[in-house]
Specification:
The structure is a homodimer of 158-residue chains. Chain A is 47% helix and 19% strand. Chain A has 158 residues and is an alpha+beta fold.
């Protein structure tokens, strides 16, 4: 077992426990590490802040990016007390850290009635078979934004 | 074609175009609608704010929740200029709006070198086959947070 990784995961789990004890949100914590040091921490704050995106990993990523003054977490590792939900996993891919470690699994989250597993299943379905009413319209009209983007001198890729 | 839906999608596309022209971010816009009125708007602000989670839908969802003082978008519709990436689609599921409409597709985004399609593919793979180094450890230790959550008198489900 990787000693330093287990120490950082322990901290993510400690944050998850603390968050339940304080009543601020769900049982989830995360930390971002760079050069062997924790540069950002996150705890689930959905109900406390009325923000459905305020999951532990999202908060930790946003804080780490603020610390680094960058929209990329190059050279960083993310440690989460639980397997990231699709939203958080997507955020992790966009942030592009070097490594991801997690402790609990999405089945553990599902056993506590969190929607992680349901959302993974929905995403794997064709749009028209999902429980969430979803409709695509006006694809051609949307092309204007992409065409302008492809030619824009102001474009900053991410 | 649903006339009101096409009007709201047009606004989402207009925001996407405006965002490219201002140089603030990627070619993506979104609006949240309740009772036939736009209550929140979002444009991609990733590079402008150094926040990899600042996609149009995330920004619009956070703003709509602030307006409604709720972590749920019950009775709302989300309109996005492009098919949501996994992060944003996850956020939409957590916010639980009634309907989702989008214009461009993830293939359109991929043709502009955005990672949406790549992230969808990664998510569909077993963890150990992904390009992002991902490791699960200490699943049992993580159980403490879930056990405390299941018994917590302060618990607020979401």
């Amino acid at each position: 077992m990787d000693q330093s990784a287990s120490g950082f995961l322990k901290e993510a789990i400690r944050l998850a426990v603390e968050n339940v004890e304080s009543g601020n949100g769900g049982p989830f914590g995360a930390v971002v590490v760079k050069d062997g040091k924790i540069i950002a921490r996150g705890m689930n704050q959905v109900t406390h802040t009325n923000d459905p995106t305020a999951h532990a990993e999202i908060i930790a990523i946003r804080e780490a990016c603020a610390v680094l003054n960058s929209f990329q977490l190059t050279g960083c590792e993310i440690y989460s007390s639980c397997e990231p939900c699709p939203m958080c996993l997507g955020a992790i891919y966009w942030a592009r850290p070097d490594k991801l470690y997690y402790a609990g699994s999405k089945e553990d989250a599902a056993s506590m009635h969190f929607d992680d597993q349901f959302i993974y299943e929905e995403m794997a379905l064709p749009v028209e078979q999902r429980k969430l009413f979803t409709r695509q319209m006006m694809r051609e009209e949307a092309g204007e934004a992409f065409q302008k983007w492809s030619k824009s001198p102001l474009k900053k890729e991410y």
